[in-house]
Design goal:
Elements: H1 2-27, E1 49-61, E2 69-70, E3 76-77, E4 82-93, E5 98-102, E6 107-112, E7 119-137, E8 140-153, E9 156-171, E10 177-183, E11 187-191, E12 196-200
Antiparallel strand pairs: 1-2, 1-3, 1-4, 4-5, 4-6, 5-7, 6-7, 7-8, 8-9, 9-10, 9-11, 11-12
Length: 201
């Protein structure tokens, strides 16, 4: 008899615990995800560039946007943003670190605007550079210290060093890295499909 009473007490205790948990769960409001946006801020040491001149249609892809929008003359370009010219041209001043000039139908991304390691992604068109920077043009990497004109019309990349020096690195189809050094008036034509280079010294 005592055994049955003990079992019944345990059973009633379990029922009480389950009932308490059920009431507790019912009283907790359900979770509803809220839409939000998250934008990373540029590094504190990064400079800003300025769209100092523009003609025709010039667009900017900002850090807050989902697509290109009309650029504002005199507007600021932040680390990670892009500029594209469509039937137009643009001149961008990099504080006191140089000038980048886009011709018609050109596109560039300012991948890194930290002064000691400027890096641009040049995806289309003809751009004139007057700066010390790394420039990625398709699969070619140009380390520029001076002035150069670079043209990207996939799969061809053309590089003309107009002053100073440039180092061009290219990984071939056998995964070998090849590096060439160029000085003023020397040029190169890179075929991005075959990963080959023709140069003129």
């Amino acid at each position: 008899m005592r055994f049955l009473i003990g079992v019944g007490t345990i059973f009633l205790g379990l029922i009480g615990i389950l009932l308490f948990r059920y009431i507790q769960i019912r009283s907790v409001p359900s979770f509803t995800p809220q839409p939000s946006t998250f934008t990373l801020q540029p590094p504190a040491q990064a400079i800003t560039a300025t769209l100092s001149q523009s003609t025709g249609v010039v667009e900017q892809f900002t850090r807050q946007a989902d697509d290109y929008q009309e650029a504002t003359p005199g507007g600021i370009i932040h680390h990670g943003e892009s500029i594209a010219t469509k039937r137009g041209a643009a001149t961008i001043t990099l504080a006191n670190l140089g000038i980048v000039s886009l011709r018609d139908d050109a596109e560039i991304s300012f991948v890194n605007l930290i002064p000691d390691s400027l890096m641009f992604l040049h995806t289309a068109g003809v751009i004139d550079y007057k700066t010390h920077a790394s420039i990625r043009a398709l699969h070619a990497l140009v380390e520029l210290a001076g002035d150069a004109t670079i043209s990207v019309d996939a799969p061809i990349v053309k590089i003309l060093v107009t002053s100073g020096t440039a180092k061009i690195a290219l990984v071939d189809n056998e995964n070998n890295t090849n590096v060439w050094n160029f000085v003023q008036s020397q040029s190169a034509i890179v075929n991005d499909e075959t990963r080959t280079i023709v140069y003129s010294f």
